[in-house]
Fold these 3 entries.
Entry 1:
Amino acid sequence: MNTGSLSDGLITSGKWKLLLIDTASNTFESIIYETISGESCLHSNLMRFKWTNDCNFANLDYVNLPFTNDVYIKGYYTSQPYDSKERVINTLSNGETSLVFDYSVEKKEFSIGLYTESFFTTLQRAFLHSTIIIDNLYYKQDTDSKLTKKPEGKKFSAKIELIEVGSEVVISKCCC
């Protein structure tokens, strides 16, 4: 950890960054990290993001893996309108319509804070896993879910729409 290039104010506030120097004397500097613990984590704009898989993923045996990937990320979400996935509407001879069946899901769009391109690559792979947990709620990708990145200088922000597991709503017309 390199705190030498940070101002005294950052060091005393619990912020730090990594400085890596390879054998060819190339220097790589990370983004600034902040140590957060206890209650302060609950009151920040951080989301706890965990991911795992049911089986093997990229030659990694998740069934026997002794941990779950777990990281706090800066971001927030906005609720989207219910998305109708399947709908059957009956049109009568007089032009009147009636809903026979509707299957809808609630989507949330997650906006993820500034990160390096390598962390964006990690996020891309994380969202391919079968189990995605954000702030203790389970999510899944929709068929049209994509993690999109937006350059912000040398860093990136990202957005993705996910479906909260259990948010499905099924409406069917009752037979009389």
Entry 2:
Amino acid sequence: MSEQVEALNELGDHIASQMPDAVRKFEIAYGELTLFAERDQIIALVEFLKRDALCMFEMMIDVCGVDYPERSQRFEVVYHFLSMRMNQRIRVKVSTDEETAVPSIVELHPSANWFEREAFDMYGIRFAGHPDMRRILTDYGFEGYPLRKDFPLTGYTEVRYDDLEKRIVHEPVALTQEYRNFDFLSPWEGMTSVIPGDEKAGETTDGEGA
């Protein structure tokens, strides 16, 4: 076991022992510590991570959502924190469903404000106690949550400024597939057998090689 993994194990054991009601389990993968936390205990856990002398995770880096439609609690809210004093990073995950709000951590980390609003706008994840729980990226009156796995690619209306017409236009959203036809190394179709332009490499001129 490397020193880094051993140190992360010790940190995980410390946090789990001090916050047994908040931490369900922890794991170490790719050199990072991840805590799986109870949704209703997230504020207490985040405050502990921020104040504890062995943690000092005083900087919140990111809050984002992940959608697993096949699960009963389909959403994961993922938090990333940084301890400048300890030179450590940590990830915290909580699960929730479409109806149950996750407690907001804005009072502990004001920078979480827009991140939580983005998770609400893109996934429909609600945060209880948030001071301004409204959309932040989509158009006014937008319906649905565009980053959910079951969000349809067509059938919605977008609002944009048309530079040619010099006005705001409303038009149906249609995500076309035609731009997926790359010359080679297409992530959807795989690499072609001959890279365009190389087909001439196999050709020989009359008399060559004779």
Entry 3:
Amino acid sequence: MARIVTPDSHDFPTRRYDLVKEFVIALVVMTLLVVVFAVAVGSPDEKAITMKSWAANAPADVVATATSELAGTSTTAGYGPPYNSASDGQALGPLTLAKWIGITQPIDAANDLVITPVSTLTDSATQQAVQQWKAASADQQGKWANNYADALSKAPDGDPAKVAKGDYGPVPAIAQGELTLAQSGALEGLLTTSTTFFGTNPTKALLLLADGSYMAGIADSENLSGDQWGMMNETGHYPGQPWLWLYTFWYQVPPFATSDNADVQVWALMILLSLVFALIPWIPGLNRIPRGIKLYRLVWRNWYRKHPETTPSRAQAPPRQASGSTQSA
């Protein structure tokens, strides 16, 4: 035989609980904390970096980055899966996970990030430079690009106008064409819209920007680099994802901070931590932590003050609100 236990049955202790009061208190406290922390340690709210702003503020870096793409020495060119086969890509110990998944988003750094967009320029000098590049062998292309990259590194301030004479083939003209597109604002659109019809995949534009030093320099100046423990989670005037702190935290500490495979290692660690968190009620030892730290006694301090002999058990526990539960008679 079973009977319904209602709050009016008084078969166990009850107490008044004002949800509205709790909500108002929590709202006021959190609002004050948000305002205080926003003033004291608010994250930077900078405008998005564009190819046009990159070209306006660091034109030499645009030229150097385009040259590194042509030489195959940029991060993107040597990244491996999912972009190319230049390396095995991210691995988790002996497990070459990226290589197993393969090249899912093929990107030829030289052609996709430089040659293809520069080919849209219609001036004869640039067109001749592009045709000369395409007609040359891979070895010759590499020789031209590496020679120019070395010359840029030795030039004062990396200024292309101050590069010593040498055998650079069409590379200077092509790199200048990349800079012209960036300055006009067309480069970002060419790299983005070439991926999908609606231009919703900015992967190529972001990879090119990340291969340069301009964006990294801004991050350093705002204390946002990994070794500075910085993080920005904002887009425009709206707050970003607060849960990202736990994910990005691991990039700041060894061995992840110095690992070439940090992405997959942090990904695997977060999966493991998520599983452990979800399975806490069934993991021996961990499921006893609440009783061990006795935090519940602080929450129900009034109850335990009146009933000091009470011990946590299924037979006798702190009062709770009844809501039509079923109890065996």
